[in-house]
Structure formats: C-alpha cells, structure tokens
Amino acid sequence: MVITEAIHEHVLKVPASAWTPAVEADGEIRDGARVAELTGDVLNGWPRGMRLIVRKERPHPGAQLRLTDPDGMRLTCFASNTSSRPIAELELRHRLLTRAEDRIRAARATGLRNLPLKHAAQNRIWLETVQIAFDLPAWMPMLALTGKARGWEPRRLRLRLLTTAGQLVTTGRRRILRLARHWPWTSHITAALERLALLPNPG
Fold it and tell me: Is the sign of the CA dihedral 57, 60, 66, 67 positive or negative?
C-alpha cells in the first residue's frame, strides 16, 4: 500500500510501546522489524472492520530508502478485515503472500507469459508443460542451493547453472560429470550436487 501523507504522520505518532516485534514463519523474531496497528482518525471513511497494519524494518545494505522512511527504517502498510488474529501474525501472512507473487513472476519467465498456440485445448497442454518445467527452478533453490543463489530468478539460473557445458563420462563403472574449471559457477553446481546426494531416497 502507498503510504499517504496522513498515514505517514500517523506512523510518526505511534509510541515506542505500541510496536511489536515481527515474526518469521518458524516463530522466531524477525531481526530489525517491528509492526504496529494504526487506529483513530486515519481510518475515517474506511469500511467498518478494516485494520491498518504498518511494518518498519531496517532494509538490507544498499537498499534505496524513500524520503518518508524515518530513521533509516523502511515503512510498509497493508489493510486487512481479519479481526481475530494478532498484528504480528497478520503481517507474517501478508509477507508470505509476496512469495506467491514471486512464484508467479518466475513462472512467467518460464513460459507462462504468452499462450503461443491457437486453440484453448492446446494452450491448456502448454500451461501444464510450463507448470512441470517450473517445478525445477521452484524446488532446486530450496533443495540444492545456499546463500544468495537461493534467490536467483529463472533467467539467472539458466545462465549460470542450467546451460553450463559439461561432459558425462563413464570410468571404472562410475559416471562422472566433468565441468569447466574456469566457469565462475562451477563450485555452485558441485555443491548443489553434493547437497542433493545427501537427501534421503524416497524409494
């Protein structure tokens, strides 16, 4: 939600005691993030039962701040008509929704952007194919990658990992994947394969 001047002025008046630590999905406190609920005149004209939640959080190094971000803290607001949950839980639910939007954006980069075929039935098959293809960039970062690589978008995954040239050879009854030593992302690939090898066998 865009923070209007009226909302911003209201945020500045929230006392320190009204801010609650934000939480992560595992229940741990989110470092450097706090949430509060805005009440009073700022909700004049809003539908009954609506709640206005604001989060302030210290952004990651290098992030661009807005003029309305006080004391180097980034402000984010959202509205909800859910009345039975505490604000930290509501904020977590809202934050998790952005991950769904990330998945949609990634799917569009994997073939969902266009429906290339002529008939609806054909495009339905295309969508199923895109979904199957998208499973790879959706699961691979979670299971095989670490650090910043887990946040790579599909295009970056394709450029750095999936299109890497390699040679598969068999020697001593073993299959070995040979990768170029000069490729900057070879270590990411080998580390990913090692992590996958440690996963339990579903069979």
Answer: positive
